[in-house]
Design brief:
Blueprint: E1 3-5, E2 26-33, E3 36-40, E4 76-78, H1 80-91, E5 97-101, H2 105-108, E6 117-118, H3 132-142, E7 146-148, E8 151-153, E9 159-163, H4 171-181, E10 189-192, H5 195-201
Parallel strand pairs: 4-10, 5-6, 5-9, 9-10
Antiparallel strand pairs: 1-2, 2-3, 7-8
Length: 211
């Protein structure tokens, strides 16, 4: 793993351990975002506060209703350390893992998790114009699914880690439930329920898409 460890005895004299670490032994994680290497770490300002966009406590429900902890049978709910582990693996050799930001462009422009890719939930929203042929094409092109005649083969399907804005956001849940309805293996779907709200609450950096 390309984790940056806080082992001062092995560090050059001019380096200084971070005050705000991820865990006692983990300062940061290097990932690939497209063709750029990005370091994920927490904000070092101990007085830093979550941005206004994710500080609201009372969004109208519906549509912004609180999601359950367990989304569907067999789908694992993961938190920040697991997401970092998946990002590390996907960036440095494991092509069978994909971390997916399911939000639309207007949210993406505010910042996304480094190392993730954007496939908006609208691609999977059958109630809002998406069709089965296009969804199958997305799975074949991006997720390691094979199409044999009219059947989808999930034998080599990638492990997907999906997220959106937070526990009140329904974008990644819709994507996951649609994938399940197509036969995607539940054990290959991971849900980062906390999403961007939790990510920012821990002071992790984000990256904005290039224009």
């Amino acid at each position: 793993m390309r984790y940056m460890l806080a082992l001062l005895c092995f560090a050059p004299l001019w380096t200084q351990a971070l005050e705000v670490k991820i865990t006692p032994d983990l300062e940061s994680v290097d990932v690939m975002h497209g063709d750029k290497e990005v370091t994920i770490q927490r904000n070092q300002n101990t007085k830093n506060k979550i941005s206004d966009g994710f500080s609201l406590t009372s969004r109208a429900c519906p549509p912004f209703c609180i999601q359950p902890m367990h989304l569907a049978a067999g789908v694992e709910t993961v938190a920040e350390l697991e997401v970092l582990n998946y990002l590390d693996k996907s960036s440095w050799g494991d092509k069978n893992i994909l971390v997916i930001d399911t939000r639309t462009a207007n949210w993406l422009e505010k910042g996304t998790i480094p190392g993730s890719v954007n496939i908006p939930w609208t691609v999977f929203n059958l109630k809002n114009g998406a069709n089965t042929i296009e969804i199958a094409e997305v799975m074949v092109k991006n997720f390691g699914v094979q199409q044999i005649d009219d059947l989808l083969d999930f034998t080599e399907a990638k492990t997907l880690v999906l997220y959106c804005n937070g526990p009140w956001c329904g974008q990644s849940p819709i994507s996951i439930k649609t994938l399940l309805s197509f036969g995607y293996p539940a054990d290959k779907l991971k849900w980062y329920r906390g999403g961007m709200q939790s990510w920012e609450s821990y002071g992790f950096n984000t990256i904005k898409p290039e224009k």
